[in-house]
Amino acid sequence: MAFPKNISPDAKRLPDLSIDPEQIEEGSSLWQDAWARLRKNKLSLFSFWTLIVIAVVCFAGPLLTPYSYVEQDLERTLQGPSWQHWFGTDDLGRDQLTRVLVGGRVSLTVGIIATCVSLLIGVTYGAAAAYAGGKAEAVMMRMVDILYAMPFTIFVILLMTIFERSLLLLFIAIGAVEWLTMARIVHGQVKSLKEQEFIEAAVSLGYGTRRILFRHLIPNVLGVVTVYATLTVPSVMLLESFLSFLGLGVQPPQPSWGSLIKLGADNIQLFPHLLVIPAFFFSLTLFCLNFLGDGLRDALDPKSSKD
Amino acid sequence: MFRFIFNRILQSVAVIFVVVTITFFMVRLAPGDPFSSERRIPDYIQQRILEHYGLDRPAVEQYWRYLQGAAPKRFRPDKLFTDDPLLNAFGIDLGPSYTSARTVNQIIAETFPVSLELGAWALLIAVLFGVSAGMTASVFRNTALDYVPMSVAMAGICLPTFVMGPILALIFGVWLGWFNVSGWFVPADRVLPAVTLGLVYAAVIARITRGGMLEILSQDFIRTAQAKGVPYGKIIFKHTLRGGLLPVVTYMGPALAGVISGSFVVETIFQIPGLGRQFVQSAFNRDYFLVLGTVSIYAVLITLANLMVDIVQVILNPRLRFED
Q1: What is the CATH number of the domain that holds B124?
Q2: Is B141 an 8 Å CB contact of chain A?
């Protein structure tokens, strides 16, 4: 293949991010703008609806299946898909469909709650450091740098093996790892926003600290925080499943996608469906969360908007 | 620049020290001891065992004795290929293992080369595929040669090691029968684990390379070179690659840390007798000294990698030389 004639990026090919003129007349908020842009991104929109379907099915589905996720039927272990058991049964004769759905519920719950934990710590820490400024800021962010260099997966594994394993400990362990990135991002954002002219303008117009904080700073940080929260959920779910795969995360009989994949991996020679089905749902969810995060970044990043 | 390197070395030593300390007290302050899970034994024997391993002493004293043993005392490169290189070449004694008749030194000497080989293959795959895919994508921007590798890369990032591994084993091991599903005996056994472990990082490196290359390609000096009639190949390989690969160098530190934690899973899936599997097992068994030993080795590896990345970065990017 021949090299293209012009290898520097071509401005004409950039995606069209302009929004409807009618909406501008109405005075649209950041979120309306973002939604309008997100709607144009087919892949993100598809991911968004797929995620909603997965979430609804995982949370409501187990109520509709005639089996519970702990109910064993030792005469029907390791069966293939059938009308009674759509996804077959596992090594203890438990209904795999119910277990995949409940596993999804566990994984999604862990993903969302641990993300909230990391959000809470990260945003508070990052914003506090940026507001404090000076020596305190330098020390606080240096600490984050040093923590960043630590082999955290190892500490999480140690935490989970040494102490009694529980969901609470899992949330704490994962949240404690994931807040670092959030703290860095929020710190950078608040720091650069503080210096910008519109804040200076607001100050010179005599607005109070509260108004500046809630009307000018928070809405601007919120977009970026939303984007990274969306991208944190898959990485949290990854860590949770990683731990569950090793047998260190969610404890049996409670299933999680990680432990279901582990069971499938142990039985791939004879019963590949035990691997393929949970792996498919897990990957689909991760895909959708990543694409949605990417789409949200395009939609919410203030720099990419035209005004 | 030498001050910078000196500072970074000091910082690395501090990080290793902190990691070992945290691990030591985390393991030691946890409820239960290594023998609590085993069959009930008479108290006086229990007492003798604890005495034998020094577990009856105060935690601080144990910590001090551990540090004395673990500190490097000499460096004899000629003894690196003996049966206990840690002790013979460095004078490091990481203590006994509770669950095995061998010492921690011996276990590490047996399992570490396996993990090192696996990790080296994985990183080689990651860099080779990642950089070439990223370069292709950036040069042929917005064509099929950009979209296809980048979509594959996105899939590679989304699929975690523990999904990729079993799936690859299923396709190439069970269905096609090209490779063994598990084990570490013949050279072909290296392929599936190394690909599994390297693929995620290949994907990330491809995206980073593409981004880095595009940033350089949009700069004025590239346009100048084009205007002066420099051939495209020369622009790409001579003018763009050096700057474009800088972000990839930065990523090598996190990539190594990732390969290490990935090895826990990959070695479990493919049943490879490496350090990663040993670490997970030792954590399960509460084998204190073995846990501490493996964590220390990992801490040294990761900080060494970060240190090297920082130094290479300063060499590649002269603008960094004047910062602290």
Answers
A1: 1.10.3720.10
A2: yes
pTM of the predicted model, to two decimals? 0.78
Selected for mutation to probe chain B from A107, A169, A239, A268 (highest B CB count within 10 Å) is A268
A20 Cβ neighbours under 8 A, 6+ residues apart: A36
Residues of A within 8 A of B291 (CB-CB) are 158
Q: Cβ contacts of residue A27 below 8 Å, gap of 6+?
A: none
Spatial separation of the C-alpha atoms in residues B265 and B263, rounded to whole Å: 5
Q: What is the ipTM of this complex?
A: 0.76
Would you say how long chain B is, in residues?
324
Burial class (CB in 10 A: 0-12, 13-18, 19+), A186: buried
Contact of B154 with chain A, judged by CB distance below 8 Å, is answered with yes
Structural domain contains residue B9 = no
C-alpha A259/C-alpha A42 separation (Å) is 33
> What are phi and psi for residue A127, nearest 5 degrees?
-65, -40
Residue B81 inside a domain? The answer is no
Each residue's pLDDT tens digit, B160-199: 888 888 888 888 887 887 887 777 877 778 888 998 889 8
**B163:A162 CB<8 A:** no
Give the CATH number for residue A268: 1.10.3720.10
Domain that holds residue A153: 31-66+81-299
Q: Shortest CB distance from B283 goes to which of A10, A157, A268? A: A157
Between chain A and chain B, how many beta carbons pairs sit less than 8 Å apart? 137
